[in-house]
């Protein structure tokens, strides 16, 4: 397979895109005539970001959001992988649960968030539960597809050589299913991040999402934009950790080079 070579234009184009975004922002503040209540100036946002980073409460809120996302993702990954593996073991289970997983994957689960609030309150429990359920379905569905698409010939050869069920599951099925499972886990990780932050904005008492909603409701636009920047940074770190865990060690250098 031919190794991908980085173009020298990658970073200049990225810088150009960022510069264009900042230019549009500055134009909106000046000739565009957009109110600072809606679009604060860049220096004011930088000042608000510095103030937020100097306060312990910001790191406490970030830790809460990070913990909620991490807990939701771990729960979804464990139960999603187990459910997909169990459902793929027989054709009947696969036919029954594939449609259920697809429905849960595509359904607007935000409609059920009030149930989580009624069950767990506005604390971290409702955020973890809602995020876990949202991430469970893409992980379970992709895991089911992954285990169900293992070539029957490989299983027959394993049985012919006297492989036990345990050996077949973990030495044949799992390695063959890993690429599709990894895709589902990545989708689930993104779903847990989005839903937890959104849930914090809707009904919460702590977290960066709560701080963003609070600043928006009080028309503190610079502080709201600062929270958006912090949330984007947090999501970037989490996504990087997920990619690092799911990328084989031998391919990490290639992925890093492509990113740069």
TrEMBL record:
Principal subcellular localisation of the protein: membrane
InterPro entries: MetI-like (IPR000515), MetI-like_sf (IPR035906)
A Pfam entry, by short name: BPD_transp_1
Example of a GO cellular component annotation carried by this entry: plasma membrane
Membrane topology: Multi-pass membrane protein
Transmembrane intervals: 9-28, 69-88, 100-122, 128-148, 187-212, 224-246
Keywords assigned: Cell membrane, Membrane, Transmembrane, Transmembrane helix, Transport
Entries under PANTHER family matching the protein: ABC TRANSPORTER PERMEASE PROTEIN HI_0355-RELATED (PTHR30151:SF20), ALKANE SULFONATE ABC TRANSPORTER-RELATED, MEMBRANE SUBUNIT (PTHR30151)
Protein name per UniProt: ABC transmembrane type-1 domain-containing protein
Organism: Arthrobacter globiformis
């Amino acid at each position: 397979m031919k190794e991908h070579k980085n173009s020298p234009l990658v970073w200049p184009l990225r810088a150009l895109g960022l510069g264009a975004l900042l230019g549009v922002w500055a134009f909106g503040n000046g000739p565009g005539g957009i109110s600072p209540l809606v679009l604060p100036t860049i220096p004011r946002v930088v000042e608000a970001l510095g103030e937020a980073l100097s306060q312990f409460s910001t790191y406490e809120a970030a830790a809460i959001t990070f913990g909620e996302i991490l807990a939701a993702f771990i729960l979804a990954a464990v139960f999603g992988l187990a459910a997909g593996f169990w459902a793929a073991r027989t054709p009947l289970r696969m036919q029954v649960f594939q449609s259920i997983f697809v429905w849960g994957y595509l359904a607007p689960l935000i409609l059920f968030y009030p149930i989580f609030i009624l069950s767990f309150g506005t604390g971290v429990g409702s955020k973890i539960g809602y995020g876990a359920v949202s991430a469970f379905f893409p992980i379970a569905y992709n895991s089911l597809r992954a285990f169900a698409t293992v070539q029957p010939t490989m299983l027959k050869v394993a049985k012919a050589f006297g492989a036990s069920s345990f050996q077949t599951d973990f030495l044949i099925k799992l390695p063959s299913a890993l690429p599709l499972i990894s895709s589902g886990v990545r989708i689930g990780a993104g779903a847990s991040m989005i839903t937890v932050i959104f849930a914090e904005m809707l009904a919460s008492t702590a977290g960066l999402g709560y701080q963003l909603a609070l600043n928006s409701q009080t028309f503190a636009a610079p502080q709201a934009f600062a929270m958006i920047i912090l949330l984007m940074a947090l999501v970037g770190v989490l996504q990087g950790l997920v990619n690092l865990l799911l990328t084989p060690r031998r391919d990490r250098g290639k992925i890093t080079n492509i990113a740069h």
